[in-house]
Amino acid sequence: MSRSTVLDQEFGQFDDDSLRIVAEAQLRNYGSFMEEYASQLRDIEDALDDRVAETWDFTLDPIALQCIPYEQTSLLSLICTDNKVFNKVITVLSALCCEINTLKYEAETKFYPAVLFYGEGVKAGSDSDGDAQILMGRMISTLQELYCFVTRCYDVAKNTVQQLSALHCGVKNSSSMLDVTQVHFLPMFEHLAELLKILITLDEVIGGHTILKEHWTLYKRMLKSVHHNPTKFGFTEESLKPFERLILQLEMALFEGNIFSNCVDGRFDDMSRGAHVSKNSTLAEEMAHVIKTLFSFIEPMIGEPTETDQRFKFVGLCGLYVLYIRLYQTSDKKLFRQFWDSFRRVPGIQLTGNVMWFPNQFLTKMLPKMMNTLDRKAKLIVSSAKTQWLNTRTVNLLKDAQTMKARANVWMIQMESHFQSSGTVLENLDKRCLLFRQGLFIARSINHMVTSIMNMHMYENRAMTKSLVIQLCGLIELLKAVQMTFHRRTMLIAQSVNHIAQRLSFLALVSLGAAKKRIVSDKRYSDKRLDVLSAIVLAETALNGPNTKERKLIIDLALCMATRMRSFKEDELSQLSAILKRLSDISCLQEVLRSACDTSFLYWHRVIFPTYVANLFENAVDVYKIKYMFSALQDCFLPLMSTRHVDDHTELLDKFNEEICADFHQSLVEPLCTAIETELRLDIHHHEYQLDNRNPFSVGLKDLTVFLKIKPIKFYGRFLDIKAAVERYLDTTFYNLTTVALHDWKKYSEMRHVATQKYGLQLTESHLPSQTLEQGLDVLEIMRNIQVFVSKYSYNLNNQIFVERTSNNKHLNTINIRHVANSIRTHGTGIMNTTVNFTFQFLKQKFFIFSQFLFDEHIKSKLIKDWRFFRENHAETDQKYPYDRADKFNKGIRKLGVSADGLSYLDRFRMLITEIGNAMGYIRMIRSGGLHCCSSAIRFIPDLDDIISFEECCRDESLPSETESSARTLDRVVESMVKNFSEGTEYFKMLVNVFAPEFRDQKHIHLKNFFMIIPPLTVNFVENSISCKEKMNKKNKQDALFTDDGFAMGVAYILKLLDQYNEFDSLHWFQSVLTRYKGDKEAARKQAARGSSDEKLSQTMSLTTKRLDTYQQEFNLLYYSLRSARIFFRADQTAEEEKDETKAKAEEGASDTGATQGATGATQGATAAVASVQSEVPGVAPPPPPSDGPPPPPPPPSAPAPPPPPATQSAPPAAAASEDGGGRNSLLAAIRNAGGAGKAGLKKSSERKVQQKKKKKETSSGSGGGGGDLMSDLASMLTMRRRGIAGSGGAGKSAPAEESKPVEAPPVGVMNTMSSMIPYSPMDNSADQDDDDWNE
């Protein structure tokens, strides 16, 4: 064994592994291919629909489903019997028919549109520039192809006639000839007639095309000029001669109108082949018989409801009749009179596009000798018959259209219902076959009606009325609706067509089997019997396969031979013919439907489209049908693609598309946009101006939303979206008009909202800077008059908006975050700190009155007594503060007196707390407005905590000094923006920290019982809130309100300052309210049940229950608002916990914790806002009690207050006077003595300003650092606190152990000022008074 052999064997051992690797690689490739293919299938399925059973959009077909039968089998393979002579004859005849079908398809798709659309898209008056010669030069090649096509038609016609002549020769010369006695090959004559129809159509298209003839004449002149001087144009005389001969041939063959005449006048005799056609009397008799038979089949069907293509066949039949007359020079007057009288059914027939063919004119031109057989009356009546027919059709069009719509609607309903399984399978197939054919009949009838009327008007040069145009467009919509109905059921039709074809084929085979059995049963042999049997066998063979056109043609030709010798009974033959006709229609259902629903003729009548669209907008009825009209116009693009006179047919397509879209926008979109804009303006301004009557019951109402609901229409690669066009128009209009008059931006904003609500339009905000005229009160104005603002406006916690309480105008002003942001953007962010300073000064004044009220003996003693009662009886009351006691407090305080407007002292105190809460709400809005203003400016800064220094970056890159200076400026701007953005979150904490130490000081012990007055305050608030809301529905809306969350904000703020959240929660007040109203409603229910027979009592109890529900809902809303407001002030921490947290952070060295707390508060505030929004939903019950077990005991009572310190010089004059006189300075006394400035201790604003200036000078000179505003005082406090933390001594130490140490020179600041303004509380814990302590 050689070495190579050994190596080969060793190498072969690795083949298994390599084959496995290759196999795995191929398997992976195949797997990836299958995955990709499955993905493509999924994409196609998604493009179709979620359910494949339902068809997709008619105008958005991603794929097309064709049900046309097809096979790759030649005629020789199909025609195969034992009768060789019969096979040859059928093969020749079938081949000629197939050739004619090919010529027909080529003429319809290539030459008809190329000649018909010649000259389209050319500007008028451009002939002088040589455009005509250029167009005709591009058309020469097409004309040459047309010349060859016509010559080919001549050859096929001649061959067909000669083959028929050979068959119908009258004698049987040899056994190789087929005996066709009593055989009538109707399909051959029908195809010959179809071929002649092609030549007739070409004559009419070219003969009626004036532009084509004019350009041909100009082109010949140009060629003649070139002929005289060929060298000038770079030609030689020899090279021009072939082209000139071609032009001459084209002139004679095409432009003289003798295309058809040249065919029928040609020489059909061929002596070399023994074809004596003109002398064949048998063929003459056969042609006469066939013409009469076809006329009897075709002419009665024209204009009938079941007409399909009979009128087109009539054109070819007339051509066949002329051929018969020209060949044999016969004169059958009766038959000619029948052809002549056909105008009574239809005066003209549409051949293609806008080309009309009139049979009388054709017969007059082609058979002038036969005209002598007609009388004068028969000739004259033709001219008036056209006008009479057109008038009759026009008058009866409305009635005919209604009838056609009724037929179509019934058919559509049946198409939807009969597809459901009902009955046997065979019955369902028969019903569906009938439905499909009825749809074809309806489509053909509509097509014939519309094309005949439109083209006849154009031929007669008569203008169509508007009503006629609308009726015709309605029929076009109906035609496309029929086509779309077929398309919608495509999936089920595709399944049914095959089953129906099999069913019909089976019935035909049964009939053929019976005839075959009848022939076979006769034992006598003859050639005729053999031919008949061969024909039946051939027909059976053709039926056993797909129903292609070739097989149907073979079946028709075979049956012409099989009907001899009475092989079929008369009823069997007619039944078989009907079955084959149905089979032909079903097999080519899509092709026949496409031809019946073709609306490409609209290109020549597109002038009706603007009228149709304008009427659609005017009536606004069935506007969705416009998609059918665009579908009809879409059919015009296919023939335009066959044009040859332009370099690129897309030019014509684009021009037609632009023309239709321009008409659509001008007649529908623009009027719609104008109408919607007008409606929006009327809706906004009809309250301000005296406008026309807009009552829809008197002036009518036009619904424009139906146009906006139309889905985007696809038309030649673009989508026509009416809604998007309207939105674009309104956006552009509103933006442009807003730029002209910025003060009208609010009106256009309202119009945008109305457009969204009324029409569903999604308009874009203009984002133009709004003027300050709209924002109501400016922040500066509010700041200067903060005391007026908080009393005249009510606060909404959820939406952060202030609403004016009352106004002399017809509207109420509102202040929201956007208005504040606009003011900050106008005046700068520095206004925020100034606003907080003004609010701080305002709160100082309000807290002085607040302290006076709680210091009053009546109020203080009542609160101490209520606290003692609750503490001693908490077990009996289930640790819930009794509702009756709070209600008694609210009612009893009125015994102390009321003001002139009926307000009690508790009402005044509630209003005071509400004003404090409104001030805090305003601070919150200032913070939010600042964040809103700054956020838009710093949104491009990626990280606020890690800001890159551009100056350092420029220095590191060694950039020029100018760049470094610019970067330094940019750093300062960024730093300023970040600082302004961060400081907005510190205001709440600052206002709490500045007041809380003084409020919680032991010398203000009278404030410690504030939480006990909250229950009666809430009762008072709820009563007032219900009263204000009830006034909203009354004519007199004085003091009407729908929101007043300032009270909840104020209570939450004061509880935070006094650190009394836990004390108030120990009252379980809102649970007590819930228990109380549940008991009252249960008692009312029981009372109503006991007195169910008493109608008045039932009504009373119903009103009572409704009233109780209203009160309970108001308490719930107050509870939710209060819980939401508490989040802003960190209600989860007590004062001790806050001190520990502050001390821990100070020890860690954190110098700035305000931003973090502010962010936490903002987050909690957002959560509270969401909770409060949810709480306002009707039907929401208040929260249940914490648990079923006993609640925890209340906190221990406060320690006895220390004795009051002696009065200081800084105490208010009113407090000093009351002490000297032995009385107490109370709010009641202040209200009773409010009549004069001297008694109330009030001063004029000018005097106060002078005094404040003096204080500032004294403070600046005495302390050197104190201030009268919040910022300066806060800075002093922070400085003192830092010194204390650092261990340095001085007056700034704030340790509790050092509070009692005297200080030599205390600074004059906010804290001391507040201490001097708030009166001391004497140590008086005696509350041993009578129950009716309000009478003292």
SSE layout:
Layout: H1 3-12, H2 15-48, H3 75-78, H4 84-116, H5 131-167, H6 186-207, H7 210-228, H8 237-254, H9 259-264, H10 281-298, H11 310-328, H12 333-340, E1 349-352, E2 355-357, H13 359-366, H14 376-395, H15 397-417, H16 425-459, H17 466-488, H18 490-521, H19 527-543, H20 549-562, H21 570-587, H22 589-596, H23 608-619, H24 626-634, H25 637-640, H26 650-685, H27 696-699, H28 705-708, E3 713-715, E4 718-720, H29 722-740, H30 745-759, H31 779-784, H32 786-792, E5 793-796, E6 801-804, E7 814-815, H33 817-827, H34 830-855, H35 857-872, H36 883-892, H37 905-937, H38 950-956, H39 961-983, H40 987-999, H41 1014-1030, H42 1046-1058, H43 1061-1066, H44 1069-1090, H45 1095-1128, H46 1135-1148, H47 1154-1175, H48 1213-1220, H49 1227-1232, H50 1237-1240, H51 1245-1262, H52 1270-1286, H53 1310-1317
Antiparallel strand pairs: 1-2, 3-4, 5-6, 6-7
Helix pairs in contact: 4-5, 4-6, 4-20, 5-6, 5-7, 5-8, 6-11, 10-11, 15-16, 15-17, 16-17, 16-18, 16-22, 17-23, 17-24, 18-19, 18-21, 19-20, 23-26, 26-29, 26-30, 32-37, 33-37, 34-37, 36-41, 37-39, 37-41, 37-42, 38-39, 40-42, 40-53, 41-45, 42-45, 44-45, 45-47
Describe this structure in words.
It is a single chain. By secondary structure, this protein is mainly alpha-helical. It is built from 53 helices and 7 strands. A 3-stranded antiparallel β-sheet has the order 5-6-7. A two-stranded antiparallel ribbon has the order 1-2. A two-stranded antiparallel sheet has the order 3-4. The longest helix has 37 residues, at 131-167. The protein is elongated and about 145 Å long.
